[in-house]
Amino acid sequence: MDIRPPGSASGWRRTAYSVIFEADTPAGRTFDIAVLVAIVLSVVAVMLESVQSINLRYGTALRAIEWFFTGVFLLEYIARLVVVRRPLAYAFSLLGIIDFMAIVPTLATLIFAGSRYLLVIRTLRLLRVFRIFKLGRFMGEGEFIVTALKASRFKIMVFLTAVLTLVTVVGTLLYVVEGGNNGFTSIPKSIYWAVVTVTTVGYGDISPVTVLGQTLASILMILGYAIIAVPTGIVSAQMAGSRVSAPAFKQVVCHVCQATDHRPDAEYCWHCGEKL
Amino acid sequence: MDIRPPGSASGWRRTAYSVIFEADTPAGRTFDIAVLVAIVLSVVAVMLESVQSINLRYGTALRAIEWFFTGVFLLEYIARLVVVRRPLAYAFSLLGIIDFMAIVPTLATLIFAGSRYLLVIRTLRLLRVFRIFKLGRFMGEGEFIVTALKASRFKIMVFLTAVLTLVTVVGTLLYVVEGGNNGFTSIPKSIYWAVVTVTTVGYGDISPVTVLGQTLASILMILGYAIIAVPTGIVSAQMAGSRVSAPAFKQVVCHVCQATDHRPDAEYCWHCGEKL
Amino acid sequence: MDIRPPGSASGWRRTAYSVIFEADTPAGRTFDIAVLVAIVLSVVAVMLESVQSINLRYGTALRAIEWFFTGVFLLEYIARLVVVRRPLAYAFSLLGIIDFMAIVPTLATLIFAGSRYLLVIRTLRLLRVFRIFKLGRFMGEGEFIVTALKASRFKIMVFLTAVLTLVTVVGTLLYVVEGGNNGFTSIPKSIYWAVVTVTTVGYGDISPVTVLGQTLASILMILGYAIIAVPTGIVSAQMAGSRVSAPAFKQVVCHVCQATDHRPDAEYCWHCGEKL
Amino acid sequence: MDIRPPGSASGWRRTAYSVIFEADTPAGRTFDIAVLVAIVLSVVAVMLESVQSINLRYGTALRAIEWFFTGVFLLEYIARLVVVRRPLAYAFSLLGIIDFMAIVPTLATLIFAGSRYLLVIRTLRLLRVFRIFKLGRFMGEGEFIVTALKASRFKIMVFLTAVLTLVTVVGTLLYVVEGGNNGFTSIPKSIYWAVVTVTTVGYGDISPVTVLGQTLASILMILGYAIIAVPTGIVSAQMAGSRVSAPAFKQVVCHVCQATDHRPDAEYCWHCGEKL
């Protein structure tokens, strides 16, 4: 996001910016956590409202809560716009659009009722939960995972292409084998079945009945069972690699013999015995 | 637990303590195993009693066994209270509470019948099974697993947060897409479906029927299939790391400073610079 | 494939060859991508045609598209035959046969209608998608996966033999235990159930009902749950191994014999003994 | 097995022994493969016989095949007894008992018909398939897997104890929560459900219906999804460890400086430059 702090702005804007957008001051951290709690509560309210029996009894209260949080998020959105140096850049950034979309649906229900379904967008605000990982210890750990996944992304894409091809070929095959019966009513549906099978989910809403179909399905299952090893292997190897490389040795070169890779707590060179 | 051995207590209490609470004497080990067998047998009795057909035929015998074991556990509980130096500390420790709760339900049935369901608490006593791992070889192995999981706990929490967010967003989406039909009757139920799917359990009690729903479900499945690689990778890397560390060093002790863990090809001690 | 470039052929054939069969010129890359897009579109058309409701409305259009792509693939096939030095070698290579089979089914529908099902073969052309991985970055990554799998193939075969034996033994056992009822109507069907179970797919179309059957199934599930660790471990270890091997060596080339891959702390070339 | 070769036996017995029990001569290998083929064919015959429709048409032929193979196995069993130095030791070894049990059922059908179900034991002979891994390349690979699993057996036992305890506690909990309805009719059945869930098999024959039940089930699923990382991590780490240690370096010590861990193809010592 190209939203930089307001630089030489007036004092209160700078303070407000650090409270609203940053998380390294106590006030900023408190603000972030307050927003997170508000998001979780509003999402819980939306969820409960979708439950028939709860809606019948507490519907009015839940709708009041919805309007309350919409107000809170509206204020928060305005505050963000005011405080940021380049409001447009924020407004059109991904987080900015999600923040805006979280307000619209409730307002739109005034005009037409069906728009309430758009509240689903509000759950996207949950993505802000990951901001909490900027607080303290979690940061490094989250970054570790993201780095490992990023480093593996090409391998994972190759793997996914292989899986998608496999699923298309086997799905089409099963459509032909089962002859369009037993739930395999079309090729896309058969591919859906193949995905359900190769990922070992196995709902059982569609399952082969013919002998040939069950044989092919068995092969697909064992394949799926075996190839889960591939993404796991990729990520494990990546993580093991980055883990081992970094903290294993002291980043110091002996000034006498130039030996490296000393123990992290070494006081003398392992090669020539010189004091490090 | 802050239950220390009774220090300068009288001889018999000291002996009883080591028998009941410790496992490094033959008597202590025998006591531990006897308690474990009693727990397993009483849990099996509770299980069998819940089976209608068995209850009809052997109900009286099973209830007699239940009372017998309740008596045994009561005696054991009293013995623990008598023998320990600070009975209150034990009584309010986690294991102490579980030990107490294992006795109460059977007694409570005298007053009102429904309380028999509380016998479920007795299965918690099964946790004492892990005491057996204090015996011999298992200790190190169990500790190895626990250590690896502890070291990975922040990474696993980040991972779980990501999974929970994914499940909430996709669950809500499917609720909207399937329009409240086909089992997706509320957002919490749709999230339950998303958990069932992303973990590749796939009961099939709820499964999408619309084309868009099945497409989204397929994406979720492949995601779930791929991201299982993350926790596996984390734990594998952690375990591989701690495993490798052990034999990666020279099995030699410096004769001057007693330092160990030298590089496999070290010629001088990393700690004092002495020739190895 | 034993299809070599046409060597000292006339200029246009050489150019055409590099466009059609190779991917390292801009024209060649464009041709490859165009073919891929055509394959994906034709496969999508075949898929959509299999959907009853779409077929009723857009059937004529889809059949026109099918004929159009059949024409395109026919032209492509002829071009490949003309351009290659040894047409027969190409025609009887795996890719050549698949390319040919992708054209036949549509033509065959002129003679008898049922042959449309053969269009399933066209999905096999999707395998050409992997050609895209010859472009740029992906190549190495794809090769990394293939190499790791190849190196593990014997271990994976041993593993698969063990799984197949397990599945046969447990399947037969369940057939006997369930007495041919509850879906376990024959041994092959019971083995199918065992595959569904051990791979953790779990459709639920067949599931044990007797107490002994459910107990055996539980053991099989826990076994399946535990032994997934084996292929994963094999591939992880393989990948971690080949990954580690790369940076484990000194990035220095011997100035005498050009040998690389010296130990990180080597002082002399392992190949010619020269001081590094 | 304490079956030693017949030592100073007469020549033909020695030859017969090496043919029947060993696999390092061409004749021995041929015999082994012939036995394997006979086992697979007889198991296939048993399987096909269990299929109603096939049994009706080819029942007589299949029963003839069954008798033929029973005869073959009887001859093989007698040959083994004759050839081995200590027949009783073989007869009471595991493989000997399985070999014997593979013959009995067919003979027993002469007396009472139900005993045909005992043919399930014949599938156990499939275990002999693993003998094939003694041939050539597979041996080392199979041993690699077995060694890794053996080295991890204590960790896997700790893990399995944890899973069994979890499954017992959660199963009992769900029995209480669902109140004995929705398939959770007894504690053992609920534990069966918990196993089906935690292993991510998920048949769907039993699934929670109450809100609390579905919440607990979701937690169990995510736990099951996360803890699959544990056995995988154990085996991966074990395999990665043993892989790296063994074949990475040349097993040669420099006769000048005693340096070890040379590249597998090193000709000169990396430490002192001496010819190895």
Automatic annotation (TrEMBL), chains A, B, C, D:
GO terms for molecular function: voltage-gated potassium channel activity. GO terms for biological process: action potential. InterPro entries: Ion_trans_dom, VG_K_chnl, Volt_channel_dom_sf. It is found in: Membrane. Keywords: Ion channel, Ion transport, Membrane, Potassium, Potassium channel, Potassium transport, Transmembrane, Transmembrane helix, Transport, Voltage-gated channel. This is Voltage-gated potassium channel. Residues 29-238 form the Ion transport domain.
